[in-house]
Amino acid sequence: MRQAARAIIIEGDQILVMRRDKESSQYYTLVGGRINDGEVPEQALAREVKEETGLNVTSARLVFIEQHPAPYNEQYIFLCTVAPHDAVAIQEASEEELLNRLGFNSHTPVWASLSVFPKLHFVTPQLQTALIEALKKKRFPEQPVRL
User: The pTM is what?
Assistant: First the structure.
């Protein structure tokens, strides 16, 4: 079973999402990706966030575990804080930068307004619904919730 780690990063009234254009299908997901052999989810999370945005995760708390169709059958979703930063951008020498350069399966990190987030075409509706509910309550689960 393949696994992934994803980040919920909220600053002010915005949430960081990844806009994807994959095989002519446009959608949004959270920043993050594959957990490599020998990595724990927190290591993969920090690596993926750095590669996809340039941000450094300073703290992460597991809030959701999502069952997901292939290629990642289980996703660990963390509520994160990041170090002070400038703009976000795909980092050079990352897998995402290579795919962007080749012109297919593109990745673009985007700060989305929390008011717009419910309207985005999010790849996993059950996660989007859980995020919307947590944002409405202004509180994320203390213990991880399976979606």
Answer: 0.94
CATH code matching the domain that covers 3-140, chosen among 3.30.565.10, 3.40.50.620, 3.40.120.10, 3.90.79.10: 3.90.79.10
Neighbours of 44 (CB within 10 A): 20
Record the tokens describing residue 142, joined without a space: 């203390």
| CA distance from start to end of the chain | 17
| HEC assignment per residue over the chain | CCEEEEEEEEECCEEEEEEEEECCEEEEEEEEEECCCCCCHHHHHHHHHHHHHCCCEEEEEEEEEEECCCCCCEEEEEEEEECCCCCCCCCCCCHHHHHHHHCCCEEEEEEEECCCHHHCCECCHHHHHHHHHHHHHCCCCCCCEEC
**φ, ψ (nearest 5 deg) of residue 65:** -125, 120
Report pLDDT digits (tens) over 21-80: 877 789 999 999 999 999 999 999 999 999 999 999 999 999 999 987 776 689 999 999
CA 124 to chain CA mean position, Å: 11
Domain boundaries, the chain: 3-140
